Amino acid sequence: MADQVHVSQHPLVMHKLALLRSDVTKPKKFRELVREIAQLLFYEATQDLTLAPLTVQTPLAPCAGYEVAERVGVIPILRAGLGMSAAIIEILPTVHVWHLGLYRDHETLQPVTYYNKLPSEPNIDLSLIVDPMLATGGSAVAAVEILKRWGARRIKFLGLIAAPEGVQHLSAAHPDVPIYLAAIDSHLDERGYIVPGLGDAGDRQFGTG
Ligand code: PRP
Ligand code: URA
Asked: Of ligand 1's atoms, which has the minimum distance to the CA of residue 203?
């Protein structure tokens, strides 16, 4: 596996991922698990964030501390990425969230862009694309291309489950983009679904299956 592909080995991620995959997990619990796993993966993906020193006043004395010095942008790919961006803004409230609407054409499996809420100028230091499923990789590759054309310099991809085909596609097209995942599964089926996967991540979050 390429150096830039990180698959979490954290026991909590593994435990919650099994619950997420289960076909008896209902949308409410599914959304909670997406939120929890996304926060754990975000923690792993941001170990290298730059800090700036500061001083806070405790009730007893001044105390040296730190604050995040980078402007972090989270880019959820609609619609399934929404649960992950909502999770991340909870634990780092200073993030900017810029929405990108992409869907996979069911026949061709090619990504179609239908919404782009990026501001005209890049105003973030680190761009984190979030989407639970990296299947063929078409949507993730398209999202990175949009961000690079926009002028983003440091980009990371955060997903929950990938197919080997998607990891290969994204890392070959953009070897400079680290990929953080909870699991890499066996393969894609003939409809482009990840096996064993979890089904349709958007439908399972929003009850539209
Ligand atoms: C899913 C998923 C990714 C994409 C992955 O979205 O959330 O965006 O498919 O597939 P790929 O790697 O083959 O491009 P979908 O198109 O189902 O849209 P939705 O989030 O609106 O349900
Ligand atoms: N999108 C999903 O939601 N699930 C898959 O398995 C593949 C693409």
From this structure: 22
CA of 101 to the centre of ligand 1 (A): 10
Measured distance CA(194)–CA(140) in Å, rounded: 15
Residue nearest to atom 3 of ligand 2 (CA): 200
pLDDT of 190: 95
Of ligand 2's atoms, which has the minimum distance to the CA of residue 80?
Answer: 3
Task: Answer yes or no: is the C-beta of 137 below 6 A from any ligand 1 atom.
Answer: yes
10-residue mean pLDDT series, the chain (209 residues): 90 98 98 98 97 98 98 97 98 97 90 93 95 97 96 96 98 98 98 97 95
pTM over the 0.90 mark: yes
Element (H, E) at 185: none
- The whole domain housing 94 covers 5-48+71-206
In a domain, 116, yes or no: yes
Q: Which atom of ligand 2 is nearest to the CA of 193?
A: 6
Q: Residue 209: what pLDDT?
A: 83
CATH value at residue 130: 3.40.50.2020
In order of 79, 140, 197, the CA distances from 184 in angstroms are 21, 15, 9
Q: Is 169 in the pocket of ligand 1 (CB under 6 A)?
A: no
133 pocket-lining for ligand 1 (C-beta < 6 Å)? yes
In a domain, 56, yes or no: no
* CB distance 162 to 184 below 8 Å: yes
Structural domains of the chain, count: 1
The residue to which tokens 């499923």 are assigned: 133
